[in-house]
Amino acid sequence: MKPITSKKAAMEMSVGTIVTIVLLMTVLILGLILVRTIFKGAVENINGIDQAVKGEINKLFAEDSSRKIVVYPPTRLVKIQKGQQDLGFGFSIRNVEGSASSFSYSISAEETSCDMRLSEAEDLITLGKDRNNIVIPAGNMMDDPVFIRFGIPESTPPCQIRYSVLIEKGNSPYGASVDVDLVIESE
User: What is the pTM of this model?
Assistant: First the structure.
């Protein structure tokens, strides 16, 4: 009789194992679907924001035909909380000259309100610190604005940082540099 009981226990254990595996696979699949849905929504939101920024930049250029550079947000003030990534500002260049030209830009930290070194402030820029050979036809603006992205680590102190955007046509300055202020806020 003992051998029959042990076979029954072995059968119950294998059925329990199969049920557990099925439940775990179901949870895994539902989790993957949820993650995919979240990321898809995030990508769509980012694309929507990019289109809105492009629209605002085009509107700002339309208001003044002599403008060489437009920054968005127009207040030139960006507030980011510690720990946030990939937030920043956008800008576009317009070629007001009579012929196609090659432009470049560079962004540098000019001053801080805290004990942060300027080189550390520049390291907060994760994308878009500088770029060369931006060819813009006469009388036109950039096809796509440039987005400057910041990555603010949790360890960064609350601070205000002024960044300067310098545009060059060839090797000479193209208009005055534009300042953008970054305010790093604690949570």
Answer: 0.67
pLDDT digits (tens, 9 = 90+) for 109-164: 999 998 899 999 999 999 889 999 999 998 888 888 888 889 899 888 999 999 99
The span from the CA of 34 to the CA of 15, in Å, is 29
Residue where a domain terminates, one of 63, 79, 98: 63
pLDDT by residue (tens digit) across 71-102? Answer: 888 888 989 888 887 788 888 888 888 888 99
Q: Is the same domain home to 76 and 135?
A: yes
Residue finishing a domain among 63, 83, 110:
63
First vs last C-alpha separation in the chain: 68
Q: Measure the CA–CA gap between 92 and 142, rounded to whole angstroms.
A: 6
Could you tell me which residues come within 8 angstroms of residue 60 by beta carbon, excluding any fewer than 6 positions away?
Answer: 67, 70, 72, 74
